[in-house]
Specification:
The protein has 159 residues and is an alpha/beta fold. The chain has helices at 18-24, 35-41, 73-84, 103-109; strands at 29-30, 45-46, 63-66, 90-96, 114-119, 125-126, 132-133, 139-144, 151-156. Helix 3 (73-84) runs parallel beside helix 4. The longest helix has 12 residues, at 73-84. It starts with 17 loop residues before the first helix and ends with a strand. Mean pLDDT is 85; it is low at 1-9.
Length: 159
């Protein structure tokens, strides 16, 4: 049952705030963005809905940022693992926090190492209107790559 006074919206993606990307970046590539968002975040290579980052080869990039559409998050997670298992690529993946409690997440990630970055509050996303707003759920950033051994949990302070 929804909490009183909270409006739930069915929106598949939200723009990542620049300060979040700056904390982890800079990045070479974003496979799930728009031209405007990539330029705003200073990410030189990107794919959009039209160019479909899921069908592209990510292995030529050193550091990747992904804030996937919610309905495709597991597809992008699977592609992440196909990439980092064979190439020395670092991938930073923004997800709703509850994703890590799903069976599908554990089927894809299994016992593979990752670093989980937990913010000290809700991230204020841009919904395209120019105003920042927090969704009705928390978010985390997962970091994948061959430089990580085991599972680590880190905390970061957001503005």
């Amino acid at each position: 049952m929804p909490k009183a006074g909270i409006q739930f919206q069915k929106k598949d993606w939200w723009n990542t705030p620049k300060d979040v990307v700056d904390f982890f970046g800079p990045f070479d590539y974003d496979p799930a963005t728009t031209k405007e968002q990539a330029e705003y975040l200073g990410i030189p290579y990107y794919d959009t809905i039209e160019t479909n980052g899921l069908k592209q080869n990510w292995s030529r990039f050193d550091k990747i940022w992904i804030n996937p559409p919610f309905t495709k998050k597991f597809d992008f997670l699977q592609k992440t693992f196909e990439t980092v298992l064979w190439h020395p690529t670092r991938v930073f993946f923004l997800l709703p926090a509850e994703t890590i409690t799903t069976k599908k997440f554990h089927e894809i990630v299994g016992g593979q190492p990752y670093r989980m970055w937990i913010p000290n509050g809700r991230i204020k996303f841009d919904d395209g209107s120019g105003k920042g707003s927090s969704p009705a759920f928390g978010s985390i950033v997962l970091e994948f790559g061959d430089h990580i051994v085991g599972t680590e949990i880190k905390h970061w302070r957001i503005n």
